Amino acid sequence: MLSKEKIARINELSKKSRETGLSEEEAKEQTKLRSEYLQSFRNSMANTLESVTVIDPEGNDVTPKKIKDIRDKKKRLH
Q1: Would you give per-residue pLDDT tens digits along the chain (78 residues)?
Q2: Domain that holds residue 52
Q3: Which Pfam families match (predicted)?
Q4: What is the reported pTM?
């Protein structure tokens, strides 16, 4: 999870970009922060999806094999 300070800085740079534009240094900072944010989001989404169990209307576990394989691999590593 990205810190509140970094998220606030992303928003600050975005607002400044729309209003007055960014310096070269600020644009690089914005790109770096956005990359960090996206990586954090992707990791969080992957963890969420890996913990989901899909149940059909009859009550059968129909979780995709790919997700089950990822869970099994993680269990073996721990």
Answers
A1: 889 999 999 999 999 999 999 999 999 999 999 999 999 999 999 999 999 999 999 999 999 999 999 999 988 887
A2: 4-77
A3: DUF896
A4: 0.75
